[in-house]
Amino acid sequence: MTAFSELETEKMRDRVAQQLARSRARSTALTDAVDEHDLVRQHSKLMSPLVWDFAHIGNQEELWLVRDVGGREPVREDIDNMYDAFQHPRADRPALPLLSPVETRSYVREVRDKVMDVLASTPLEGRKLVENAFAFGMIVQHEQQHNETMLATHQLRTGDPVLHAPLPPAPPGPVINREILVPAGPFTMGTSVEPWALDNERPAHQVHVDAFVIDKYPVTNAMYLEFVTSGGYDQQQWWSEEGWAYRQKANLAAPRFWVRDGDRWLRNGFGAVEPLVLDEPVVHVCFYEAEAFAAWAGKRLPTEAEWEKAARFDPDTGRSRRYPWGDEDPGPEHANLGQAHLRPARIGAYPHGESAFGVAQMIGDVWEWTSSDFHAYPGFVAFPYREYSEVFFGPDYKMLRGGSFGADAAACRGTFRNWDYPIRRQIFSGFRLARDPRPDELR
Ligand SMILES: [Fe+2]
């Protein structure tokens, strides 16, 4: 090994250690914010008790990093089944003999101590699982993804607010929401070079995308309110068949966490009820609501390929960027990520985060529903296990792109793909509109 690559390996280890520490700080903050009772309680049958998420984070870390990468003895083999997400649906998890909050905290600490030892001593080469510290990166992303889920649990929790964060930045000047034409042509979708990209983001491949028009900003509360007040939820013509069936069954009337107050609407954000901020992206809508709104507005949702092209393609160089703004990692000037602010930012707040086409706030703020199902890219290879992505491929899930204010930069990239059931509303999901161009726009 050359001195140069030793230096690179040390830098990689430092980066991993920093990211692990950052993720753990967030898990700790989210679990320390509530008392023991709130940690073991199920706040919604859609969610696990917070203490299950925390121990599951530790258990996955043990399985992959302590046992597999490190080849060490198990810490707690006896609890593997209890914290296997495939074995127990969320609704059943509170009935399991879960580790108590005290046991959970000591378990995750013990695992982490061993992981730091493994990190210091394992060569980060020779095995695909450890190349570029992939397994460590996967575990960092896993913890951050659960942190977003835990934040969603906090949103479902009742009681006085316990989470606090500063407001996101305000738009620096007047904001005009406009449509942007993306011309027809091929672009590179997905990645083969991003070291911590997951199997479903790979490999990079050329996709031809017909010309389309996309909104500069996500749909705002003001726009969505018009749909609500004009009776959109009672007009079947805007809804797909499945969407209308779900609207009826679940009695949908407004986004989740909107609260009716006479003839106006308020929203509940982590226990604080306040008037709607009209120029904030709408959040907590399901795919069916997004689809119905788009039909009502005379538009449609973008496909996943359209979304990624608008976000990453640079027409001047012909290449796809890592992020809308370029190849640099996200900073606070680019995007509302990482639970730094506990709400989406008003549209226009991140001019430095715009894509080459000028499409704004694609990363951060709200996950954006697309019209696409979850499919493998051509050349897909399941790694490191089928349960990561492959078992979810098919028409049951819709793709969400871009990450929310609750997602961390480590688990969010221009290529990052998220998927969920079309009925999900407790996630931090919004959308933006697209449409086919008119003939006069293509001349
Ligand atoms: Fe998990």
Automatic annotation (TrEMBL):
Pathway: Amino-acid biosynthesis; ergothioneine biosynthesis. Its cofactor is Fe(2+). Its EC number is 1.14.99.50. GO terms for molecular function: gamma-glutamyl hercynylcysteine sulfoxide synthase activity; iron ion binding. Keywords: Iron, Metal-binding, Monooxygenase, Oxidoreductase. It is an enzyme of class 1 (oxidoreductase). It comes from the Bacteria. Gamma-L-glutamyl-L-cysteine binds at R90, A91, D92, R93, D420, R424. The keyword Protein biosynthesis does not apply. Belongs to the EgtB family. PANTHER family: HERCYNINE OXYGENASE, SULFATASE MODIFYING FACTOR 1, 2. This is Hercynine oxygenase.
